[in-house]
Amino acid sequence: MDSNPATIGVVGCGVSGLTTSIRLLQGGKKVTILAKEIPPFTTSDKAGAIWLPYKIGPRNKVLSWALITYRKLERLSKKKKTGVSMVHLLRKGNVDQDNWWLEDLNNKLSRPIADVQNDAESEYQVRVPFVDTPIYMHYLLKTFNKLGGKLIYRKVRNLYKLQKEYGTVVNCSGLGARKLCKDTKMYPIKGQIVLINPVAGVDYIADDRPNRELTYIFPRSKDCILGGTSEDGVEDQQVDEKTTRDILMRCSQLVPQLENVKPLRVYVGIRPGRPEIRLEKEAELPLFHNYGHGGAGFTVSWGCAEEIWKLIKKMN
Ligand SMILES: Cc1cc2nc3c(=O)[nH]c(=O)nc-3n(C[C@H](O)[C@H](O)[C@H](O)COP(=O)(O)OP(=O)(O)OC[C@H]3O[C@@H](n4cnc5c(N)ncnc54)[C@H](O)[C@@H]3O)c2cc1C
User: What pTM was computed for the model?
Assistant: First the structure.
């Protein structure tokens, strides 16, 4: 047992657990992460990952968390080896559907991020952070280690027992919280991704028009992500061959250059769906929750970490 009353135990080593731990370490706390999977084997490692408030709530809180994250990622994009860059995303979607975050961010950021074109297709460009997950997750882990964080492989079975061990615990267990907290609001959202070799001159595109399948193209340093699917309630991790063909077809319809490309690798990730993120302290205990980030865990990661830091500071 490594517990020490001065050490905060963080459950989970995905983007939420690592970001939260880094913020706590930067605030002068000691942190031990306990996780049954670590990068590159978490759901976070499988993500897109573009900054986009997608399948996530509650809207009023998401706005401020997403803005904090946007600014932090923009700063990281100026540093080497973080895997973060600022990109122009061509967003095909109903502007009305995105207005809840677009307008707010356009007003608050010194440089407007969206240039809305009023054509029939409702296309617009938005300047957003993009995270190359293999590089970024490694960067987060390295930063955590450098700041003195400790990592233990361990499956946690009972958060209350862990709280007794550590004193303060932050639960960042993603979909694992469904069992750990018996949280019936949690649900899986299956996403399938096709990786191809890098293709020169391809733009970042996310096509989420109503009544169509979610389709996206995100070029990365060593490959290019073609997506995707978003199947609520589906948890099987099996790659579906028909879906692979369908993703390739939809992407080549958006960018004809992608016709006849061959998959390098195809995989499935299960998003931790919840109608609203659970970010709170339990009433009587120093047990905090930060999970249920659905399809936008990267988009709100630094904002949620900041909120946990504020709650912990308030307690001391
Ligand atoms: C295909 C796909 C595409 C996506 N695209 C984007 C995107 O473009 N932009 C974006 O912002 N987001 C995107 N997401 C969503 C994003 O990946 C998630 O919201 C985010 O990864 C959730 O992070 P997390 O750290 O909360 O959970 P996870 O990454 O799942 O990490 C959970 C951690 O908890 C640990 N754990 C769970 N239970 C236990 C237990 N009992 N004991 C010990 N450890 C435990 C796990 O081992 C793991 O370390 C995408 C997701 C998928 C699947």
Answer: 0.95
